[in-house]
Specification:
246 residues; alpha/beta; 8 helices; globular; binds NADPH dihydro-nicotinamide-adenine-dinucleotide phosphate
Length: 246
């Protein structure tokens, strides 16, 4: 894998938040970057990125047909995906006693099964290329287990087991599979918690601040780079120390 020029990168949920920061990181490095989005607004290339190096593809990761269509679109434009950032994720927080089957299912389906779906599709081509990088975006919540997040914690812990099994399956082809576990990151997802709850969480962060999406993107970018060629099956915290020792 040549580094840094011109790999084909796919970021799920790349229209905003952490995914958008990852897309911008790879665009700044000269890669060809595709992002998935679901809404009406088609994401624009990050500032300074030529249009021909950026592609937005409509995709809901809970729909196998949309995943397949998105990959075909990326492959037609850029060729096979060499770096996958499985970032798309949701929360449906509530206590277990109040948690509906639907809230459980939706979170597992998006965060875990959706990640499986996009990784499976990427790996099929990476095996033939004999190279590739997969980075799953988990969460410190996988290890802490915050109240109200049984579904989310299960989905994000599940990513770790899946990543390690997959890492062993594909290692002989020089494909690496790793996980980043962000803490409190300034995005729409965190804003939904409200300032009081965010303040409580940030107060527990040894580095004394929340993360920017760019803090997470830098770790993802490193794991996707040649510099990380010997790192696979790892879980890299990007949490300001919040989860250390867990
Ligand atoms: P946002 O809510 O800002 O963004 C979530 C992204 O996921 C959006 O781009 C959204 O797409 C996409 N998405 C959600 N559901 C689907 C789906 N079914 N199909 C395709 N895309 C989907 O959150 P963040 O940027 O904060 O979160 C990104 C990831 O980071 C998530 O996996 C989250 O769990 C994880 N994380 C976040 C932390 C935080 O503090 N913010 C901490 C730890 C982990 P669309 O724009 O179309 O809605």
């Amino acid at each position: 894998m040549t580094d840094p020029a011109g790999r084909v990168v796919l970021v799920t949920g790349g229209a905003r938040g952490i995914g958008a920061a990852c897309a911008a990181w790879f665009c700044a490095g000269g890669h060809r970057v595709a992002v998935t989005f679901r809404g009406d607004d088609v994401p624009a290339p990050p500032p300074g990125t030529p249009g021909e190096r950026f592609l937005a593809v409509r995709c809901d990761v809970t729909d196998p047909a949309q995943v397949e269509a998105a990959y075909r679109s990326v492959e037609e434009h850029f060729g096979p995906v060499e770096v996958l950032v499985a970032n798309a994720g949701i929360t449906r927080d509530t206590l277990v006693v109040r948690m509906s089957e639907e809230a459980w299912h939706d979170v597992l389906e998006t965060n875990l099964t959706g990640a499986f779906r996009v990784a499976k599709r990427a790996v099929a081509k990476m095996l033939r290329l004999h190279r590739g990088r997969i980075v799953f975006v988990s969460s410190v919540g996988a290890f802490v287990g915050l109240p109200g997040q049984a579904n989310y914690a299960a989905s994000k812990a599940g990513l770790v087991g899946m990543a390690r099994a997959l890492a062993r399956e594909v290692a002989s082809r020089q494909i690496t599979v790793n996980v980043v576990a962000p803490g409190v990151v300034e995005t729409d997802m965190t804003a939904a918690l409200g300032p009081a709850r965010v303040g409580e969480l940030v107060a527990m962060v040894p580095l004394g601040r929340s993360a920017t999406p760019e803090d997470v993107a830098a770790a993802v970018g490193f794991l996707a780079s040649d510099a990380a060629a010997y790192i696979t099956g790892a879980v890299v915290p990007v949490d300001g120390g919040l989860g250390m020792g867990l």
